[in-house]
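We include this case.
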Amino acid sequence: MALYDNGDGRVAAKDSLAIRARGGLLFMGGFVVLLAVIELVNTLMSHSLNAIFGLRPRSSDGVFDILTFPLLHANFGHLLSNALPLVIFGFLVFLSGLRVFLTALAFSWLGSGLAVWLIGGGGVTVGASGLVFGLFAFLLVRGFFNRSWWQILLSVVLFLAYGSILFGVLPTVMGFVSWQAHLGGAVGGVVAAVLLRPRPRAVAQLN
């Protein structure tokens, strides 16, 4: 946040959207590069990392895999399918500030992992799609909690462009798609929007 003197002795805070935009691109770009490096190492190891750090539902040691499973993917095609929406949604959330972004990301991550651990099917779950759904859900609902017309307009545009992905929260005949991760991530994103909503100002009480 930069400070500037407006000429009459008052100093005002100037929150630069350009700085946050640059920070969002760098952060999300760096995160996707990290995912690509992990996938390259995983590929060279015949994806043995998935068996170690992928999320195994209802297993005692699988609780710790909640922290690692979004960082792993089945292959580069799987990673690429998540990369673009992850960058777009993450960048848009980052425009609201680092605290907002980290809160939305954390609840999306945790919600996705808990849903898979609690109600996931058999096998090992990997992939960042739960984060995609969480950030998307956050963007869709935050404007209504914030009563911000431009955020509501953005949510409408995003829904028209990407709304079809919401079908991914429903149980599907495609067993290789973890709808549990999608649903949990989306719930986490909504919870983050609720927690970050503006608090009503306390009304002054006069004696």
Observations:
- The helical segments are 17-44, 48-53, 76-94, 98-119, 129-146, 149-162, 179-195.
- The chain has seven helices and two strands.
